[in-house]
Design a protein that fits this description.
single chain; 355 residues; alpha/beta; TIM Barrel; eight-stranded parallel sheet; isomerase activity; isomerase; Xyl_isomerase-like_TIM-brl; Xyl_isomerase-like_sf
Amino acid sequence: MLKVGVDSSKFPGAPERGAVWLLEQAAELGLDGVFFRSVLELSGTLDPAELRDAMQAAAALGLRVEAGVGKVNPFANPESPGVRALGDGDYLLGLRRMILAAADAGIRELWTATANYQFRLSGLYACDRFRTDVSWERQLAAVERFLGRVAPIARDAGVHLDIETHEEITTFELVRIVEAVGADVLGITFDTANVLVRCEDPVRAMRRAAPYVRATHVRDVALAFTDEGIGRFLLPVGQGVIDWPALLAPLAGRDVMLSIEGVIGSRAEMSLHIDDERWLRGHPDLTAAEALEVVRLTRAYEARAAAGSAPGLRRLRGPVVPGEPLEFIRESARRLRELVASLPPSTEERTEPRT
C-alpha cells in the first residue's frame, strides 16, 4: 500500500527544531512517515544513541523513516565537504560511515543523487549536465564506476541507494545505471517534478522507471513559456499539469512512500532551453513524442492561467507567502490520500528486475 510522507528539506521550521519535532509534526498532520534529506539530520555526528532515539520516536508515532546519504558523482562530490569530513578526508569512507549508521538504525531506503543545480545562476550552465570542464558522458561513467565501489558496502548493509531523478539526469540514464550496477543495491527515487526539467512526460517517465522505484519526491508542476524556453514551477499535488492517476498506477499496491517535497522561498523555477541547440544535443534519448507532450502540457497550463483558474507567470515567480509552505504540504497530502484510495488494485504480473 502506498504511504504518504513528507520531505524534511521543505518543511517549515524543521532545520531549527530537529528530527523529533518534525516527526511529531508529521504525525499531527496524519502522515505516514518522513524522508530526511540526510541521515545527519537525525544525528550530526552519526551518534548511535541519537539515531536510536530518533528511530524510537518514529516507531512510537507509527512513522516510516527514509534518509539520504552523500551524492555519488566524483565530479560533484567536492561540493559536499561534510561527507568528506566524516571520512577524515576520504569521501568514500565518509559515505560508508553514513550508510552503515543508517543501516544500523534500521533505515533501508537511502536517497542519493548525481549532481547539482546552481540556483544562484541562470542559463544553461546552472545545471551540471552542461558543464564544459567535464562532459555529461564522463560524469555518467564516473558515477557508474563509483557506484560499483559503493555497491558492496550497500549489499553487506542490506540497503538500497535510491538515486533521484534529479534535475540533471534522465530516467533513461538512471535505468541504465541501476541495471549496470545491480537492482539488489540500487533503486530510483522518482521526483515527479524534476523529470519535466529534462523534457520527459511524467507518465512515460514513471513507466520507464517503475520497476526500480523505491522512493519518491512528490509535487505538481506549472509550465509556462519564457524567454529561456519553458519554465517549470512547483505547485501542490492536483493543481498542475501531472496526470496523477496515470502516474501513480504503476506503483499501485507497492510499499513505497510518496514523500511530499514542498516550497520554502520560491517555486523553484528551472528552465527547459528547448530553442538552444546545445540543450537539444545534450538529450540524445529525447523523443519527439515526449517533447511534443511537454509542449502540449505547457499550452494547456497557460490556457488555464489565462482563464484565471491557475497562477500565471508573474505569480509563479513571486515570493512564497507566509503560510504557503505548510498549506502546500496539507493540500498535497489531502489530494494524495484521495488518489491512493481511488487507485485500482494492481493487475500487472510483476517480474523481478534484472540484477
